[in-house]
Write a structure and sequence with these properties.
The chain is an alpha+beta fold. It has two domains: 47 residues, Alpha-Beta Plaits; 289 residues, no CATH class. It is built from 14 helices and 13 strands. The protein has an eight-stranded mixed β-sheet with strand order 5-4-6-7-11-12-3-13, with helices on both faces. Helix 12 runs antiparallel to helix 13. The longest helix has 21 residues.
């Protein structure tokens, strides 16, 4: 019987709840909305499947991995796809191939007013909802079971998600059904709490006095691909605010993110995609317009063959792995020393308080800016 005593040991992938034939495990939210398994002891028969299927550890399946991934920089040949995607629209090329085979695609979308959830798509229009970054942990609900049902029907399935989600799904599906399953993970900083995102939306609407009709976690149409600013579309208006500021402070991540087992080059997926920071080390002109460049890591033979089948939709170049390394391909994001205080204050005082306390709103933020400026000036002076 699975029993989580330390929250850093659970990534919330739902593999344990999905495999329980007695339906004895439900996923319950904590104070920030992160889901953890809870066992109904009256239903549990102590079969041990939930413990066996857990793949959030150093022993996740690496049996299909190359010694080192094959790396590419890429951009979709259709500039519209690039402009409406987060990086170079590599995901569109891979998912288009699956849909064209009559397959199904799973990815992170929205439900119930911008609540981030994993969804199923059988058309390109449905799949387009999965475009773009979503800096919230997605609710998996019964997706693992849906994936298994699709595979049993003989369908080709693409599942995209964070590496902890793909690792959990891979373990849940097992070798028997793995042949038709294509896995894509992202290079992940960490996942913020769903309740923080929910309350942020409420705070913005109250502040603006308008209903939000669209969100973009990283709006490159206004600021370029290198920008890290989100935008919110209201009826007839838009604004640019501060969610990404606290995201990059690593203060509201799930506890397990700071102890991630997948921040290395042995990815638990066939393909890894990300923004390609450092593309200019290989080709100085490829992304000169700052519209975006995807990093593609082919981790398995299936991933290599898959990439060969979608190359005709991409402009791409081969890259050396050492020119592609990002911090989260080496180590988990560091813990913010105020992580636990953030959670306590969020529960006690609400979102606006923690935004003023730890974000870029209010007097404390101005003080932090002033201190940083003084330190920089002192450093420059000493350097002279």
């Amino acid at each position: 019987m699975i029993h989580i005593t330390n929250p850093q040991d659970c990534c919330g992938c739902t593999a344990c709840a999905s495999i329980c034939v007695r339906h004895a495990i439900t996923m319950k939210p904590d104070a920030l909305g992160f889901l953890y398994p809870e066992v109904d002891k009256d239903k549990c028969i102590h079969c041990g499947l939930c413990e066996k299927v857990c793949a959030f550890n150093d022993n996740y399946d690496k049996s299909l991995n190359f010694p080192e991934p094959i790396a590419y920089g890429a951009r979709h040949k259709d500039i519209h796809e690039v402009e409406t995607s987060r990086s170079g629209a590599a995901f569109i090329a891979f998912s288009d191939w699956v849909l064209e085979q009559g397959g199904v695609v799973y990815g992170a979308g929205y439900k119930d007013y911008f609540r981030v959830v994993h969804k199923r798509a059988i058309t390109k229009r449905q799949r387009d909802e999965f475009k773009g970054s979503k800096y919230v942990q997605s609710d998996m609900n019964t997706v693992f079971l849906q994936v298994r049902n699709d595979l049993k029907k003989g369908m080709i399935v693409l599942f995209s998600g964070t590496p902890c989600q793909t690792s959990g799904l891979n373990s849940f599906i097992g070798n028997e059904l793995r042949e038709q399953l294509y896995l894509i993970d992202i290079v992940c900083h960490g996942v913020p709490g769903p309740y923080v995102w929910r309350d942020y939306m409420t705070y913005l609407e109250k502040k603006e006095g308008k209903k939000i009709v669209a969100v973009n976690f990283r709006d490159k149409s206004k600021f370029g691909w290198n920008a890290h600013k989100e935008s919110f579309q209201y009826k007839g208006d838009s604004s640019y605010t501060s969610y990404t500021y606290i995201f990059y402070s690593h203060i509201m991540f799930r506890h397990s993110c700071y102890f991630c087992h997948f921040t290395n080059l042995k990815r638990p997926s066939d393909v890894t995609i990300a923004d390609f920071w450092g593309w200019e080390k290989t080709d100085k002109l490829f992304n000169a317009d700052d519209k975006g460049c995807s990093l593609i890591l082919c981790n398995t033979e299936k991933g290599k063959v898959w990439f060969a089948m979608v190359q005709n939709k991409l402009n791409f170049f081969s890259a050396k792995v050492e020119n592609c390394i990002q911090p989260n391909l080496r180590n988990p994001s560091p813990i913010n020393r105020n992580r636990n205080k953030f959670e306590k204050n969020f529960v006690k005082y609400g979102f606006e308080h923690v935004l003023k306390q730890y974000g870029n709103l209010g007097f404390k933020y101005k003080v932090r800016l002033c201190i940083a400026k003084i330190k920089k000036n002192m450093k420059d002076f000493i350097g002279i």
